[in-house]
Amino acid sequence: MKMSKGEETGGKADNRCVVSLQLAFKETTTFNLERAVCSHGLFMMAPNRWDPVSKTLLRPLRLISSSLSLPVRISHPSPSDPLLVSVFGTSSLSSQDQNGILAQVRRMLRISDENDRVIGEFHNLHEAAKESGFGRIFRSPTLFEDMVKCILLCNCQWSRSLSMARALCELQLDNHSTLSEDFQPKTPQSRERKREREIKHDVVMKLEAKYSEKKEKSSLDSSFIRETNSSSNSSKLLTSSRTDTAIAADHISGHLPCQSAQLGDFPMPEELAILDADCLAKRCKLGYRAQRIVSLAQNIVEHKVDLSMLEELCQEFTLLMYDKLNEELSGICGFGPFTRANVLMCMGFYHRIPADTETIRHLKQFHKRYSTTRSVQKDIDAIYGKYAPFQFLAYWFELWDCYEKRFGKTGDMSPLHYHLITASNMRKSV
Q1: Each residue's pLDDT tens digit in the chain (430 positions)?
Q2: CA-CA to 6 of 20 to 30 Å: which in 122, 137, 206, 246?
Q3: With contact defined as beta carbons under 8 Å apart, do 410 and 404 qualify?
Q4: What is the domain extent for residue 194?
């Protein structure tokens, strides 16, 4: 992987440092930022923000030299250009911080020689995926964020997974303050819901008018910079009762760039380990997941779970190593088969498909297999076994294609509509 001059020194302009990640030559003809990002529901979860107008990814990333998070924009002007990583809120970056930011970007977009090898081998087995350029599955900049988000995917509707991730990022802004168990939203939830219902129709009409106009250069960058810079102030947290409708209304009126004007980065283990699980559950509407997330964070802080060791183990993509990692994860509270399979997929193992009710729904609707919880694995093996050891990639290519045929191209979708991608809406008109 080549490092450009901009990556070594950092460009300086308007209080931002532009770091350039130079893709290897063989990648320039196959890498596509939109396909790499808009390939899995993780890209829709806060603090990730895909701008459908400028085709850029925005989110905070942490510096290696401190716990400070800075807003980052990732863009790819053309296949022949390097991937550009613009870091805002600073006029310069140390070499250590540059390398740390770029490592997080590489992890999210799966940019490595090993990932290229995996994609190439998968494309040899799956012609349709090769033609579409599918193969990179978006993930988080850290294994911890992936692990927590995989917990958020369990036993709930997709809209709730989105809201829980957003609530954790809102909570992160207040990481230097003490959360009390008697926390109550400023606005009573009943009144908040009534207000949201009153503006819902107006919001939808304005959104449709907004997106039907001629696309202009997105102003998301400047709003994103102002938002993250303001996060250093001791501003009040938004209440967890806010919904996409209320957020959209603020966006229309110019108060917000995309989601919450006070949205922070995803919390670190050290920030969650000190919290009371009941308080966290109440504040972020996490339910039983709060205890699992706090326990995970505490185990990491106390070095009972070594994330660095886990990531080192996954450098070797063998079935033996999968079994070893699976055993390590099974010892963590709350990491059942579905969660472990999702985490290991994020770590780069694609031979196991995390099966849930959505998998059963897809097999019934697409393959006419009337699977049950007991028979689903047998049906998965029969349908996707020929793509071993990349069964998940074949399954996800098929499932994601069905989503986009049903709901439209995810890279063009407004964040307001992410919650619509549900199993129930796959069965009816949207």
Answers
A1: 333 334 433 444 456 788 887 765 455 567 899 999 999 999 999 999 999 999 999 999 999 988 899 999 999 988 888 899 999 988 889 999 999 999 999 999 999 989 999 999 999 999 999 999 999 999 999 999 999 999 999 999 999 999 999 999 999 876 544 333 333 333 344 444 444 454 444 444 443 444 444 344 444 444 544 444 444 332 332 233 333 334 333 333 333 333 334 468 999 999 999 999 999 999 999 999 999 999 999 999 999 999 999 998 887 778 889 999 999 999 999 999 999 999 999 999 999 999 999 999 999 999 999 999 999 999 999 999 999 999 999 999 999 999 999 999 999 999 999 999 988 898 764 4
A2: 137
A3: yes
A4: 145-296
140: Cα separation from own chain's centroid: 6
412 in any annotated domain: no
Give dist(CA 25, CA 229) in Å, integer: 36
Element at 135 (helix H, strand E): none
Distance CA 172, CA 190 (A): 26
Q: What is the pTM of this model?
A: 0.79
Helix axis angle, 277-284 to 289-301, nearest 10°: 130
DSSP notation for 377-409: HHHHHHHHGGGTT-HHHHHHHHHHHHHHHHH--
- Look up residue 18 and give its two tokens: 């532009």
**Residue 85 resides in a domain:** yes
- Which residue do the tokens 């989110």 mark? 59
Residues 283 and 153 in one domain: yes
Quickly list DSSP for 96-119: HHHHHHHHHHHHHHT-SHHHHHHH
Residue 26, SS3?
helix
Containing 198, the helix (H) or strand (E) segment is helix 189-212
CA distance 139 to 59: 13
Please give the full DSSP string across 270-319, using - where no structure is assigned: HHHHTS-HHHHHHHHT-TTHHHHHHHHHHHHHTTSS-HHHHHHHTTS--H
DSSP annotation of 3 = B
47: CATH: 3.30.310
In a domain, 29, yes or no: yes
Per the domain annotation, does 271 fall within a domain? yes
Structure tokens at 237: 């947290």
Question: Under a CB-based contact definition with an 8 Å cutoff, are residues 195 and 246 in contact?
Answer: yes
Query: Which residues, other chains included, contact 120 with Cβ-Cβ below 8 Å and sequence gap of 6+?
Result: none
Say yes or no: 154 and 273 in one domain.
yes
CB 38 within 8 A of CB 411: yes
